[in-house]
Amino acid sequence: MNEQTLTPEQRAANLKGMGSSRKRVEDVRFTQGKGNYVDDIKLDGMLFGDFVRSPYAHARVVSINTEEAMKVPGVVAVLTAEDLAPLGLHWMPTLAGDKQMVLADGKVLFQGQEVAFVVAEDRYAAADAAELVEVDYEELPVVVDPFEALKSDVVLREDTVDENGNATEGAHGPRNHPNHIFTWEQGEKEATEAVLSEADVVAEEMVYYHRTHPCPLETCGSVASMDKVTGKLTLWGTFQAPHAIRTVVSLISGIAEHNIRVISPDIGGGFGNKVGAYAGYVCSVVASIVTGKPVKWVEDRMENLMSTAFARDYWMKGKIAATKDGKITGLWCHTTADHGGFDACADPTKFPAGFMNICTGSYDIPTAYLAVEGVYTNKAPGGVAYRCSFRVTEAAYFIERMIEVLAIKLNMDAAELRRINFIKKDQFPYQSALGWEYDSGDYHTAWDKALESVGYDKLRVEQAQQIEDFKAGKTRKLMGIGLTHFTEIVGAGPVKNCDILGLGMFDSCEIRIHPTGSAIARLGTISQGQGHATTFAQIIASEIGLPADDITLEEGDTDTAPYGLGTYGSRSTPVAGAATAMAARKIRAKAQMIAAYLLEVHDDDVEWDIDRFAVKGAPERFKTMKEIAFAAYNQAIPGLEPGLEAVSYYDPPNMTYPFGAYICVLDIDVDTGEADIRSFYALDDCGTRINPMIIEGQVHGGLTEALAIAMGQEIAYDEMGNVKTGTLMDFFIPTAWETPNYITDHTTTPSPHHPIGAKGVGESPNVGGVPCFSNAVHDAFRPFGLTQTHMPHDHWRIWKTANDLGLHG
Amino acid sequence: MIPAGFEYHRPSDIASAVSILQEHGDEARVIAGGHSLIPMMKLRMADMGHLIDLQDIDALKGISLMGDTVTIGAMVTQHELITSATLANAVPIIKEAALLIADPQVRYVGTVGGNVANGDPGNDMPGLMQCLNASYELSGPDGTRTVAAREFYEAAYFTARDDEEILTRIHIPVPAAGTGYAYEKQKRKIGDYATAASAVMLRVVDGVCAEASIAMTNLADTPVFAEAASAALYGRALDDAAIGDAVSAAIEATDPVADNRGPVEFKKHVASVILRRAIDRAASRAS
Ligand SMILES: Cc1cc2nc3c(=O)[nH]c(=O)nc-3n(C[C@H](O)[C@H](O)[C@H](O)COP(=O)(O)OP(=O)(O)OC[C@H]3O[C@@H](n4cnc5c(N)ncnc54)[C@H](O)[C@@H]3O)c2cc1C
Predict the structure, then answer these.
(1) B233 CB contacts (<8 Å, ≥6 apart)?
(2) Mean of the pLDDT values across residues A488-501?
(3) ipTM of the assembly?
(4) Which atom of ligand 1 is nearest to the CA of B74?
(5) Domain assignment of residue B127, given as a range
(6) Is A387 a catalytic residue?
(7) Which pLDDT tens digit goes with each residue over A55-80?
(8) CB distance B186–A672 less than 8 Å?
(9) Which residues in chain B are contacts of A732 at CB distance < 8 A?
(10) β B69-73/B166-173 pair status
């Protein structure tokens, strides 16, 4: 068969473009152990760095003696803050406008904080020597509770108070206490309070989203290689934003940006953990400069859990007002945010609490007010967006709990309460009370489809029966039905209000078509498992009619990729995906001129048809994209430059607002506290669907993380600030055994402002999954008087709920 | 998570292993599957100059049935406990319990000898061996001796084994035909140690309990062999009252500590629930 005889459907199918469940091209390498991760990088003469970490959560560092450590054979150097200070690198800026110690400068603020960096010829020598570094600590009172911190006279950050002990102005305005970081207010305080005071019904609750950790399979690490001859620094690392890292390294080290090459090789999961800058990165760079040799640093699992970027830890006090028949009239939220010892949240500069102001969720709430108060405590810094756009999962958890709490107060079915409050299809684009413009949505359709798919009414009948049986002593199990309708805000974001360290959050794509009709595309983003090489090729395939299989995708090398802000916050598809489509369209525009020239007609007389330009009204006269590509390189076309390449930098006009309807059914063993997930239904609307199989995979993975977070995963501290969950024995990562089967479904409401209508999906299941699992647990106990309890719902907490409700007789 | 340096030894018979132990005293440790020891070494909580690998010693391998006794070599893996037809026939509770240890990866390498010798109260095999009234054969510089599992555990990581001895074999009396059994364990996830676990063996003759043996795991600093609980069942019909008495007696013998799995009161409650379930299941299997 040739191009003449294939049907249009066959030609489209051959492209494996958008809508095709094309197999992930990455997996051939990954499933055969042929990935290339940071720890796979081995360079001649490479040294290894290892940290001495603080065993205390709060202590003064009186002295550090490195003598014995230096005697260990193979040890090359032991760096302390004193060594970094002359370079101005003992502290570094954080993404949140604060600064953070690279190595302990006189004191430590959390257990696991980096105190000294041992550099040796191999890992074993480094670890042996780290044990021999003698640090003399003087313990200080520990503050682990953020509410206490705001009352305490223990000053954690002496660098942020003036000589009278008063808090100096912070990056986000005035501070009212030495341990206070910022207060961020959105919406209308007085109007909301007025609504609350006049409402028929007000439900009030403290909703705590506990501290957890992204815990990617691959931990964080870097390899720095300073070439003293060329003056060039090459830095490989687990970076979700390689270009931003290059700029930051240049700014803090003084090395000119063109002399820095940052490479993110394969990344084994990021989930927000690899957005920030860590002491290990800086120390590997300094050590390479000092020793003139490449230096590798890779943290182990315990170090990952205790020191690099936790997530959540939001205490969200909420009030929700409604009429007696359930129409919500107002929402009030005051959040106390535990940021740990340094404010190292990864948020766009103007949003110290991320997009927490999406907390009105899927509901048409006319009046709202949000205040978020950031607090220093003796815990690890972080506050990253663990598989969510900045604080969106906190917001979703908050509103989806508050809806349930309100349903209890109103004695209403929570599904119905949601339905009567959804933003209606014809209200989009919708202006929310807290300042966002939702691009598109059709919540009622999704909701009704979800309820019908799971047989919601029947489930409630079954549940009622089960409750009766329980009360009659016929069973010790309770059935919970968890509902969630979430709306995310992703794809940061418009440069006018989104930047990180002053870098606008646009993204980019450059496409080069080769003479024989294959192509390479480079993006400013970096895949960490999302399958960019698969899906972005599909966008290009559909836009320019070359098979996805003939398109190579490259990301992560700042010497070759166009500048971009990286991958997190579900921004790759909304921003870089848009750039990809726009770059492809530039190519198609030039291809149109080439085709017209070859066909000897006017530019306007050819039209695009799947993989070719054809003469209007004469479809048998055409030039395929492959032919056009060749012509671009071998014909002198009047008025056109040779070659076929394009680059696009895309500044999105708005965020995108994916949404979804999730329903979980579980059974709780009241006596042991075990919860058995019976079923989980996930309907996602992420706009245009590029690769349904990848979407399904993303949803499965995200739901499993949500299961972990809701049911057991936490970073817990004791009152001395010791991390209690520092290994995978205690930090819950579900295995295949604990993971239920998921049923996935979808509706499709394209984004009106995105070139291909796609909204992003990778984070939806985490954002929607956590409240759904948690609501199911709460729902099981609702008939027995439970309004609110805290995650994670591990065995003992569920047992305690049952016990507190008197269910153990 | 990098262990300190050590000298590696790989003897091929018991006598050589013992003599290396003797030579280096408490500077030396044997390593079997390494799935308890290596994590401790990586955490630098166990630090020894000499590691004696037992895997080349054939005399420590194999499962055999002779007369009324099953003998299991110390180096038999937990995976082999699951797949052995001999054990499945003679002492089926072993398979039921072994399936609840860790995960398949751990069980392919972890050994039964390491599990019982380790002395970690979280290990499942010690309680099981007490329930089965097994005995351990130990070889040392002074020859061989046998210690009952019920006498072996002194405190967490302290056992009756001398530093210079190697645990070579486990002998288990084959339970009488018709003995009901159950191993019940609650854990947070696959790969976790027990929140509470219990092993129950019992025989019912003419409607009354003719023999009972109950042991529990991770509810004290040693396995809990609950003699009083067994006694509470003996000679009685296995009705609610008898089982209730047995459960109370067993819980009385526990002394759990609070950890990330939960506080003491929760653990005791869960222990009572799963013990009751184990007794019920064992009773349903007794014939
Ligand atoms: C993730 C994970 C989960 C686990 N979950 C469970 C669980 O749920 N239940 C459970 O029971 N176990 C569990 N374990 C432990 C596992 O079963 C180990 O394999 C077992 O505890 C030790 O056996 P080993 O062969 O690995 O011994 P090793 O680790 O090699 O040795 C353990 C100790 O016993 C000593 N030792 C070993 N063999 C002998 C011998 N023949 N004579 C004298 N001393 C000896 C060693 O010197 C060492 O001190 C888990 C382990 C891991 C890593």
Answers:
(1) B202, B209, B212, B242, B243, B245, B246, B279
(2) 92
(3) 0.97
(4) 41
(5) 58-173
(6) yes
(7) 999 999 999 999 999 999 999 999 99
(8) yes
(9) 188-189
(10) antiparallel
